Amino acid sequence: MAVERTEALADVRDDGGGKPDGAVVRDALGVGVAVGLSGFAFGVTSAGSGLTLLQTCALSLLVFTGASQFALVGALAAGGGPFTAAAGAFFLGVRNAFYGLRLSQLLALPRAVRPFAAQWVIDETTAVSLAQPGRRSARIGFVATGLSLYVLWNLTTLLGALGAEAIGDTDAWGLDAAGPAVFLALLAPMLRTGTERTVAGAAVLLGLGLLPVLPAGVPVLVAALAAPAVLWGQGRRSASRGDTAEEGR
User: Fold this and answer.
1) Where are the transmembrane segments (predicted)?
2) Under 8 Å between Cβ of 182 and 70
3) Which of 51, 90, 189, 227 is the most exposed place for a label (fewest CB within 10 A)?
């Protein structure tokens, strides 16, 4: 009886847990459209940093990870070198590799499809896929989110870059702040625990504090040390509490 029940639960998870395909697509499109419109801000920011229309569009087509793209053009706009800017973008993009490890088990896509699906392994497709009750709905959510976001992001990137070229100096319009504003808007809802908020706050302090003394792009790399520093501090506090509890006994 226990074996039959386990197999039944596995079948429910594989077939999507009864969630209608239309509902999955609707949720996925909502995420894809909402985030895809942010490509306009990237196009404007990239053009304002000095990149050509072709370079801007190539970044969205080939890189396709918003935070890394904003970090790259932001460092270039601040006067950073290409290697420093690329390093910051790389470290931000590493998280997608960990997403891929989780999604490879959840989606179980054929080997021939995986290299193409890897292009769509980003924050939004991961979140939508993991929110689904079964493998079928997870696959639908991944494809619908990835396709809608990829198409819209690249389209709005093109429009943003063209618009920036048409209006001229983006700094005069204050559009150089569009990229950071969008990035913060995407990041804020993800800070749900005290640890996450502490890490974000420490990273901001490190980045802003070192901005006047380090070359452009380097403060972003140093700010990445906020996470291990906060985790180390929490580990020390937990160990101290454990020692205090032992002494109390």
Assistant:
1) 28-45, 140-161, 173-191, 203-231
2) yes
3) 189
DSSP H or E stretch at residue 224: none
pLDDT at position 4: 40
- What is the crossing angle of helices 135-167 and 39-48, to 10°? 40
Max CA pair span of the chain: 73
Distance CA 158, CA 56 (A): 8
Kindly compute the dihedral angle of the four CA atoms of residues 136, 137, 139, 141, in this order, to the nearest 10 degrees.
170
Tens of pLDDT, residue by residue over 202-248, are 888 888 888 788 776 677 778 878 888 888 888 878 777 766 666 66
CB 189 within 8 A of CB 69: no
Helix, strand, or coil (residue 215): coil
pLDDT at 144 over 90: yes
Q: What confidence tens digit (pLDDT) does each residue in 162-180 have?
A: 988 776 666 666 655 665 6
User: Is 39 in contact with 8 (CB distance < 8 Å)?
Assistant: no
**For a pLDDT cut of 90, what percent of the chain falls above it?**
35
Distance CA 194, CA 166 (A): 44
The token duo for 1 is 């009886």
* Cβ atoms < 10 Å from Cβ of 64: 22
The DSSP line for 108-155 is ---TTTHHHHGGG-SHHHHHHHHTSSSHHHHHHHHHHHHHHHHHHHHH
